[in-house]
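Go through this fold for my students:
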Amino acid sequence: MASLVQHVAGLACPPLSGASRRPGAPMRPSALVCGTYVLSKDEKERERMRTLFDEASERCRTAPMEGITFSPEDLESAVETTDIDTDIGSLIKGTVFMTTSNGAFIDIQSKATAFLPIDEACLLDIDNIEEAGIRPGLVEQFMIIDENPNDETLILSLQSIQQDLAWERCRQLQAEDVVITGKVIGGNKGGVVALVEGLKAFVPFSQVSSKTTAEELLDKELPLKFVEVDEEQGRLVLSNRKAMADSQAQLGIGSVVLGTVESLKPYGAFIDIGGINGLLHVSQISHDRVADISTVLQPGDTLKVMILSHDRERGRVSLSTKKLEPTPGDMIRNPKLVFEKADEMAQIFRQRIAQAEAMARADMLRFQPESGLSLSSEGILGPLSSDTAQEEGLPEDE
């Protein structure tokens, strides 16, 4: 028994390596059972994870495709047989994943690379592709318009799709015969170029209602109507005169409209009344004499004017603020009052015009007693009364 105790006491635990203990950490006593070293719970878990890692590493080195049924050849075949039409003119859905100063790269779920040039991003001329709303993450439908033979990159376009939609819209607007607005962006000796639905349209000077130059119309918006829409020939012709004629047809004599002073001349002021240029003659500004128009009006002023007359053939509209004055000279002394009372004064003017016309018709009817009509003291035409008939020696109506 003594010899057994001596033998057990002579057994020593294996020393711990320096790598397994943090520097400065106190030594922890390990259990000794029959001379065998026992690992702690954390140490057992680390040992298990290390064993699993070593086994996985060995499998990756010796048998990387073990348990995988999809081979690299299968992947290549799947990519090649993916049902994506890459013919020129085809539409394809893609996602923008990177933009550059020249355009954007598009992910079209294919092994082929796709690129959207900046000049194909939209109908307008832009300096930065983000001006067209092209940013990473945008999902859009594109048209394939070309392929770069050097690297087989597909060239995409949004402009082509937008052009088709714009031409279709123009055909629809022409069929509906509506008035649209176009911004003048250029011109030549024959007319001006206006931007309509994103397309460049031509407006001949013969179809511009006012005599002016291309420089004077630059950056201005004109009311227009379609004359010719020919996508095959790329011809888009519009008319300002036709639009003006439609607008003027809605202007009745005595109507009050809001206008903006465009320019001043010694004989009057030209007023823009919703795309139509009207002349406010110096004699129609006020009942009082106006020696210098600039003392009453300035370019850019907004005012209310009344329609006196309009010549649809020549596209001329005559205006007046004189007829809107509550008392003579108010346009010079208190123009604000004139604009506040404009509708009321215009109504009085229209009533006077109607009464004058009725009086004129009544005078004509006096020479035609058989008509059986007469004019009342209020200026209203009506059936000939018995009193009136007796006074004038005319037969009464039965």
About this structure: The first strand starts at residue 32 and ends at 33.
